[in-house]
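debug: dumping io for the single-chain case to check the tokenizer round-trip. Nothing else runs in this session.
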Amino acid sequence: MSRMASTSADVLPTGSRIFTSIPDIFFIPEFVFGGLVWTLVASTLVDPTVSANPLGWVMFVSIFCFVMTTLWFFIFACGANQGGIWPSLDVAYHFVAVLLYLSASVALAYVTVMLGTVASAVPVLPPSILKIYRLDIAAVVMSHLTTLLYFLHAIFSALRWKSS
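debug: decoded output
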């Protein structure tokens, strides 16, 4: 009878086991790529004349997810994730992070495409604008990679939750 009873202690890792378990191994690349999105967007130019510039949303999402993932990581590392609700909270958080990052990635890609459209009309770009455009492209790539990482984390968390 005890074989049928499953506890979250069997499901969610704690301590150093989070570095060796799927999906929790995705924490580290989520930190790295999410931090890159944050720093790349922070180093681009925000045009104050554009009233609907979505870079503020991108910064909010990247900082929010970075902070929440850090808290989530420490909760797992300290072993405070051993209640019955934690597997479902893990799935919910990562799916919310996917939705947030997807919206931010699309907005960032849109801004970059618009900048590229404007830049293509100019025969020779000034080096400062070219640098900003390249930073925006790098931020779009990192943002989409971060979205993919959160999506994989969410899928594997959902599989773990379903099997618990």
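debug: round-trip ok. The longest helix spans residues 127-163.
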